[in-house]
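#struct-help
A.M.: can someone run this one for me? Single chain, 117 residues.
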Amino acid sequence: KDRAMGVMINGVYQQDDPGPDTTRHGAYERTKSTLRSWITAEGPFTPDPGRYHLFVAWNCPWAHRTLLVRAVLGLQNAISVSIAKPRRTAAGWVFDDSGAYADPLLKARAVHAVYSR
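D.P.: on it. C-alpha cells below:
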C-alpha cells in the first residue's frame, strides 16, 4: 500500500497530507520560497566546515540532489549528513537509534522532528 507523505503545518507533523495547495480552479500553486540566500565567502552565510548538516533519505529526489552537489563540490568534509531509513513510516522519514540510519547530531527520531525543534 502506498503511504501518503506527511506534511508540517504550523510546526506540527501531520501524518495525513491534506493535499496540494490549489487555486479555486485546481491549478497547483507552489508556496513562495523563503530561502533566497547563497552560501559564499562574502556571507552572510559563509562556507565554514561544521556549520551545515544535511538530513536526507536516499530515495528522496530533493535530498538526492543535495548529496550530489555536496559530492561534486567536494564538500563531504565540510557538510555532515544524517541519513534516514529508506522507507517512510507513519511518522515519515525516520532514524534508527544507532548505525548507518541514525542521526548522530541531534539524535532525532524522525526528520520532521528536526524541523519542529
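A.M.: thanks! DSSP finds two helices and four strands in the chain.
D.P.: also worth noting: The longest strand covers residues 52-57.
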